[in-house]
Amino acid sequence: MNHKRPRGFSLIELMMTIAIVGILAAIAYPAYQDSVTKSRRTDGKAQLLSIMNAQERFFTQNGTYTTTLSNFDTVDGSGNITSDEGFYTISAAACTGGSSTPPCVVLTATAQGAQVSDGPLSFDSQGVKTPIAKW
């Protein structure tokens, strides 16, 4: 008697494999998206720090900060600078707080495109970074 043994996977084995892959994907994909968001955030941080360095040089030469970013780089139609990878748009504004505070400038990186869910990053000439959890 020569019995041939069936080869291949049963439907139950196939469905179990698909269920396991689905569970793993459901766990891994959000973690992957979070990692991608964090890595793209470095684009905005690097641009903020670069412009703040230029602001400090400008302050050394002129005794004040400037909100005109065209002094440092190519600006878009609204007077803002787009980060190297295009995930953030950098703008500058004078600090608020009255005349008792020294001259100050706030740089804000506003998230664009695929990064928009991350929200803005800010850094001022006094070293205050917001939101602190993202720095």
Write up this protein.
The chain has one domain. It has 135 residues and is an alpha+beta fold. Strand 1 and strand 2 form a beta hairpin. The protein is rod-shaped, with a radius of gyration of 25 Å. The termini are far apart. It has 1 helix and 5 strands. Helix content is 39%, strand content 16%. Strands 1-2-3-4-5 form a 5-stranded antiparallel β-sheet, with helices on one face.
Which residue ranges are poorly predicted, with pLDDT under 50 across at least 5 consecutive positions? Answer: none
Shape: rod-shaped
User: Secondary-structure element sequence?
Assistant: HEEEEE
**Helix percentage:** 25-40%
Q: Could you say which structural class the secondary elements and strand pairing correspond to?
A: alpha+beta
Domains, number? 1
Number of helices: 1
Report strand order across the widest sheet: 1-2-3-4-5
Q: Main beta sheet: strand number and arrangement?
A: 5 strands, antiparallel
Give the radius of gyration. 25 Å
Oligomer category: single chain
Task: Record keyword descriptors for this entry.
135 residues, alpha+beta, five-stranded antiparallel β-sheet, 1 helix, 39% helix
Short description:
With 135 residues, this protein is α+β, with helices and mostly antiparallel strands. It is built from one helix and five strands; from the N terminus they run αβββββ.
SSE layout and pairing:
Layout: H1 11-62, E1 81-82, E2 88-94, E3 105-111, E4 121-124, E5 129-130
